[in-house]
Amino acid sequence: MAGGGGPNTWRGKVLDAIYGHYEDALAALPPALAPRLLAAGVSFGFADPVTNIITNTVVCSDPKPKKRKRPATAREVLSKVVAAGNGPSPPESRTIAERSLVGLLTFVTSYFRHLSSWDALHYLYLSRADLLVAVHLVEVDRCYYRRRKDKFCIRSLAVKTALKCAALSASLPNIDEFLAGSYACAFHLKLITQIAPPAKRCRRLLSGLLQKPPVKLNKSNNDPIDLAVLRLHHHVPDASIQKVPSELTDSLRGVLMDRIHKQYLKAVSQLATKEFRISHHRSLFKAGYCYGPFSSPVSNIIVNTIWYGTAFPALQDFEVDMISTLSHVEFRSLDGLISFMRVSIPEVSDHDAMVYLLKSNLNIRKAIRMATQGGHDTSGRHESGYKAAADVSYHPKPEAYLEFVVHFLPTVRIAVRSLLQDSQTPSSSKVLDLSRLLSPLGAKSLEPIDDELTKNALERLSNFKTGFLTQQSFVCGKVKAVLRKYEQTVGCCYELCIICGVNGSVGKSTGIRHLKFQYTHANFWAMPKNGNSAMLFFAEFSNDEDSKNLRSFCHPVSDLSRHGRCCYCEFQGIRIVHPIEICWEGANDFEKMARGEHKITNELITSSGKVEDYMVGIYKEDYIYMDPTQDAKLIRIMNRATYMMSLDRVDEKGRLRELDPQQAQ
């Protein structure tokens, strides 16, 4: 954000813009409507701020009348709109302008993932507190404008939820009245606002226009977001939407992680089920990164996965029904892509690299071309980029990968691309053909290692695997149960392919030493027995064995790009795709957050997500898939970590002995 000052400074600048809107609205409204304005005339909705204030004032029911000798003047009302100081007021003493600001912030942060209130203030400042102009700025910065189904649509459940949350946070006296007025205004928007000063708009609204049958939105009527774009160019000529401001780097990384997760879900669905569950899940975790020579991240994931599994096969197969998370390979993929960009174009910052990756849809070569066209000088070869990517993403065999991707893969690239494009879901024979194509390099790369796991490290490794298998058994049983329940509803049988994401920390928690939550959320792929294309499902089920009184269900996810929000999954930093068609535990929690009645807040969600999306180092999954015959570096790390943990336990016993000798026994 340009300029200096803290949050209160920027909050004051947005409030100044809101005060200007109230001045225009008060000049048009009859004095008799002043009590309504102070009660419910917020500046947010689907029109420009002045029209929103007028609309929300007109549709508001008359508050309890107060005895007055004469109607208040516009100046007297305006004095009650302006806040006393720069800092936020307590909820019970907020003016209507402050309540408007709270509602604006709530709408933007409820509708868009990964946006903190500070980020939202940036967009509200650029838009002069015009809600839909701010929404458009976010959409442009996140490249949502390129796909029709990603664009803002007032009929969507996400928009309706965000608007209701905004109304709740603004403490409006009648939420249903406000929502009905907002949508009625949207359907008559062009007729109300077309080349009309505030006074004329007010007369049109007072004439009962909102009670008329709604006009169907089409090109001739203009969608509210289209009118917002016109206001952007007319009122905010200095608003920069050419690139995401560097202050929004954390938000941008979260958006990119969402895009990468979508690619991994697709890749999992396109790998043959049997081979994936037996062996390819291991190589996906260890080296299935989304960077590579192909334009499609999914193709790079599949090729890197199959190559590593062929070149460095496991000592023994480890068949699974579940992948609890894909997070660590996704984090490392993004770090690899950023490093590739920065080595290829040294003057590009991490932030700018992410901007180009977003605009290129994770196509590294296209991103570099875009940066070059933007005036950046390209230096270095792709070989340097792959080396940097492999190093920063903890590739287990960086030298072998460099040899594979730079020298070997180009010789079979056409044949590989043909196999990948031949069908949406490669058959077992196609996967075998890919393995044969990519195998010649592997036999030369195996080298014996001297490192061995210590006794304590082996025990720790065994505990990791036992814990995973226990969780898998529980989750798999629950998923199969909700899938059978769904089959009875739709009259179609499905075969469970793979569970690919689990969050067991949903709902209320119980216990003190060992926390247990009410529900688990999970994604899984399932194949109709009379079809040939897998479907992604969302599941919610109770964490209790006896769950008769708690609902459990599953539902297909129709679109990986558009899905519902869940404060529990987002707070945990676990990417579970939720359907938008139904409600689940957590679906209404954003309304509780808007009322200030939830222990989770948007700031907790964004700060927790930031920590998760910047995670580096070694993960539990690394240990689960560790190969004692190949992973020398990981063996040394695990031995060291186990040794340090044993020292901590000794120190803890010593402290307990000093405090309570009996407790230390």
Automatic annotation (TrEMBL):
Q: Mind telling me which InterPro entries this protein's record contains?
A: DUF3615, PIR2-like_helical
Q: Domain DUF3615: where?
A: 479-579
- Do you know which Pfam families this protein is assigned to? DUF3615, PIR2-like_helical
Q: Which residues form the PIR2-like helical domain?
A: 17-139, 258-371
Question: Transmembrane segments in this chain: where?
Answer: none
Matching entries from PANTHER family are given as:
EXPRESSED PROTEIN-RELATED, PIR2-LIKE HELICAL DOMAIN-CONTAINING PROTEIN
Q: What is the name of this protein? A: Uncharacterized protein
Q: What is the species listed in this Swiss-Prot or TrEMBL entry?
A: Brachypodium distachyon
Q: Its gene? A: LOC100837955
